[in-house]
Design brief:
Layout lengths: L6 H15 L5 E7 L9 E6 L11 E3 L10 E6 L1 H9 L8 E8 L4
Parallel strand pairs: 2-4
Antiparallel strand pairs: 1-2, 1-5, 3-4
């Protein structure tokens, strides 16, 4: 039976693909949930894109695409200002979700 990659690996794979597809993305952050260990919990990415319009937190869900992407995924695209508001606590992610590792630009 093949090994299923962990969600952090899948998040990095998705971040690289999204960055290649949308070069205006300035930052991608892995969003983690209280139930991250649950295989039904999607891989979540917050993408900061200066070319998007300010619209708040609107998660967009995608299905799994085995074998490369064995988990469903969610993308939340925000402006730089919205990202700063999330960091400041004035704009909130869904309950139980929080900012995790920065995947792009890669942290040294």
């Amino acid at each position: 039976m093949p090994k299923i990659p962990d969600k952090s690996e899948i998040a990095r794979t998705l971040a690289a693909a999204h960055r290649n597809f949308e070069p205006s993305i300035s930052r991608i952050i892995h969003v983690v949930a209280d139930r991250e260990f649950d295989t039904a919990e999607p891989v979540k990415l917050l993408e900061v894109n200066p070319d998007t319009s300010e619209s708040g937190i609107l998660p967009i869900m995608f299905g799994a695409d085995p074998p490369q992407i064995p988990f469903p995924s969610v993308v939340i695209e925000v402006t730089e200002g919205e990202y700063e508001a999330i960091r400041a606590g004035s704009l909130h992610l869904p309950d139980g979700w929080s900012l995790g590792d920065t995947l792009y630009p890669a942290v040294a």
